Amino acid sequence: MSRVGKNPVAVPSGVTLAVDGRKVKAKGKLGELTLPLSVLVDAGMQDGKFWVKPVNETKQARMMWGTTRNLVRNMVRGVSQGYSKSLEINGVGYRAAVQGKSLQLQLGYSHDVNFPIPEGITIKCDKPTSITITGADKQRVGQVAAEIRSYRGPEPYKGKGIKYDSETILRKEGKKK
């Protein structure tokens, strides 16, 4: 039995959640998100709360029960509060700047890296060495952060590169004479 799936998702004021056939639609102040439902779960609204139940007692249906409930909860939080990820850039001459609809990164290559900002995502550079990515869709915010980090991941000797704000880099000792 899914312990997570048993709990209904509370819908805060300002968010409308609707089940339309095999899709769940969430609409709030930060946008609108949709989630296709699996055929292994049933969903509905009751007393201002959203619930998910498995269709049968197979292992796959029970797995989708908790997964679907958490995906809907992430949608509700995304359209009401939003999600954000912060990245830090370390290294001499490494910097970032938002120019129009793209993020320009100088990461020690012979050329600048231009990352086009996708729809529904907002990127801010308060300082040249910090990037903040915000949006309503948790998965897309994380994917954009991972793609930006992949241009120059942090290296273990000097810590140069792009890392998450909360990430700690395990440092290695350099060469000995």
From TrEMBL:
GO biological process annotation, one example: cytoplasmic translation
Gene3D superfamilies associated with the record: Ribosomal protein L6, alpha-beta domain
Gene Ontology terms, MF aspect: rRNA binding; structural constituent of ribosome
Any one of the GO CC terms: cytosolic large ribosomal subunit
Keywords from the named record: Ribonucleoprotein, Ribosomal protein, RNA-binding, rRNA-binding
PROSITE patterns registered for this protein in UniProt: RIBOSOMAL_L6_1
Residues in Large ribosomal subunit protein uL6 alpha-beta domain copies: 11-82, 91-164
Quaternary structure, from the entry: Part of the 50S ribosomal subunit.
Functional description taken from the UniProt entry: This protein binds to the 23S rRNA, and is important in its secondary structure. It is located near the subunit interface in the base of the L7/L12 stalk, and near the tRNA binding site of the peptidyltransferase center.
UniProt record similarity statement: Belongs to the universal ribosomal protein uL6 family.
Protein name (database record): Large ribosomal subunit protein uL6
Organism: Hypericibacter adhaerens
Gene: rplF
